[in-house]
Amino acid sequence: MSRFLTSLPELTLRGLVDILVVAFLVYQALMVVRGTRAGHILIGILILVLLYATALWTGLEALRSVLAFIVPYLGLAVIVLFQSEIRRTLARLGRKRWWGIGGGFRAPESASEILLAVEVLAAQKIGALIVLERDIGLRTFIESGVRLESLISRDLLISIFQPGLPLHDGAVIVQKDRIAAAACFLPLTTNPQLSSKLGTRHRAAIGITEETDCLSLVVSEETGRISVASFGELIQGLSVPETIERINRHFEVNRPSPMNIDEFAADIPLAHASIPAPGDDRATDRVKQS
Length: 290
What we know:
Blueprint: H1 2-7, H2 13-33, H3 37-58, H4 61-68, H5 74-81, H6 83-95, H7 111-123, E1 128-132, H8 139-142, E2 146-151, H9 154-160, E3 171-175, E4 178-184, H10 200-211, E5 215-219, E6 226-230, E7 233-238, H11 240-250, H12 281-289
Parallel strand pairs: 1-3
Antiparallel strand pairs: 1-5, 2-4, 3-4, 5-6, 6-7
Helix pairs in contact: 3-4, 7-9
């Protein structure tokens, strides 16, 4: 053991930094494939590599010759099999704010109009999918739908998702204060850990957030529940104030959520009653009736 320890190279500051960087890259790679089918594929590739190393070490020529035809093509297989994960990882690296650089995104300027439309759609149990662009552009998905380039309004969003209309199916993509396109096609998530009860609309909401840093608002046409998807995770059954909080947190906006007037109705005077003058019976009757 002492001979093995003395043969190890001396740990320097450069070597420590090298180890930490490699450990960080391995950790990020594991986080990308965690909970997906790519994780099982990665395990299969590692088993083949271990078998090849074992065949070389033990002198199993038959096994080594068979694996020799497979191992050289593993690099190409990794690129083909993990293309979506590689694309997702590069997108995550691109949206990281290194030393405060790259944080130029902002929340949609008409979020209140979007939330008003979502509230009406949820009350009427009309299915809807609205995607809010953040830092990574969604031009590829915008081109798959019908371009609108219109200002955001509650009435327009409600009209788009009315059942039976041409733009009902698909997603609406919002860029800043404009509706870029409607009836857009989004990639579906392939996460096997998700519930099988989730429909296509919810899976599309999760799938687009796995590849970009956008936020998806979903209204279920069966239950009318509001859901929010971001970074590959879906939160279901949110109220409007909770949805506002999620949007502000996602876009890193610090501003208080608008309050409903019904929650503080006792503090708001409904009418200004005039004070009756002495002897004015008509004014007294009006105050009593009110």
